[in-house]
Amino acid sequence: MCARFLIPLFFLLFTTTLSAQSNWQPAVITTADGERLIGKIDDRRWGFRIRQLRFRPAGSQEVQRLFIPNLISFSVADRQYSVGDFSVNTSPRSTLDLVKPERKSVEQSPKALMLLLEGPISLFSYVDEQSNTHFFIKKRGGEFTYLEFGRYLLDQQNSKTYYTEPNVFRDQLFSLLRDCPKLELEISRVKYRQAPLIKLFERYYACSNERATYELPRTEGGWSFGVDAGVVRSTPDYGEIEPGAIFFSGLSSTDPAAGAHLKYRFSGLSGDVAVRLGVWYESFDVTKSVPLTEASGPNVTSSQEYFFNERSIHFQLGPEAILVRSRFPVVLETAAHYHRILDYRESRFNQRIENGMITTTGLAYDFANTNAFSLSFGAGLIIGPGRITLRASATRRKYDQFVLNLYRVGVIGSYEF
User: Fold this and answer.
1) Which of 35, 98, 390, 399 is buried most, with the most CB atoms less than 10 Å from its CB?
2) In the prediction, which pLDDT does 247 show?
3) pTM
């Protein structure tokens, strides 16, 4: 795989990613003036705070920008949003950033709440700019109520953080759902998360023999195909070497690599989890020369030489999960690799040049194409249909003469169709 091929591929990957982020979906909007607008909204991963909508009226190619404070509600791609001036607890939830209860912070502004479940009491969610999720409820014909959640610092001792999560939202649920006493134990244990809250409210509806009149459409699962390209830094290291072997440090090589993958994404509340099957091609050369000054003279040059070449195809299988949903979601991945070694050569020797005559002593290996296994871990950012991932892997191979540990770190760009 040569650089002449990879440069156009990278250009195509990123220019296509930038141009393919638009995703026009059928939409209905109600403005603060009571006007009803029908057309399409450019919907691009709304797991973050929505400040404005890119709207294209039906029968027109003109793009309008509609700001959240000027709206009452809107629906897009079968998802429904209610707009209003709401307050949320913006105190940090990350353990490293926690504050004392007296430093609690509240933010109030126009927000678009996404409807999760509609029934006698409806459930809504909102994700702030720190990717923290907040939940609201609304009785049929009533007002919105914020289910308050907070995490506050108690103390920090010996690198340990002690914190508290006041039971406010559960107390609110006890009061609101008290006409279904059999839910008391479940309410006392429910987590401030989407899936358990949805299950709780579904059970509450069943208490009065009702069912949800609307449920947030579940993420559709299915297969997708993608291409991958990037640069990989390969570093060989030796665990056990035969006596008298030449030892080198600082060996590495940075080379282009490319591949493709199939991915199956699960549906429903597990839509952030996928299984990935990939094929990945790598080719690299590691060379190093170390002068031996003590063995050199006016007419003599002496050095230690190292050469390592490998071409291989990696078959990858493993899970990935979206860890943080934001404007650019954070994804984690891991995979098991089976390496089909196409070609592997290695030599380690002393080279002596005296009066133009070259003499070498050492070992030159030409092994059979021994296959190998490895594990890789990675983290990346999703940008529309593309992503950038930092991936690392390690391989251990045992030969008759030595043990080879091969470490790889790569920056990978991917595009999915």
Assistant:
1) 98
2) 63
3) 0.58
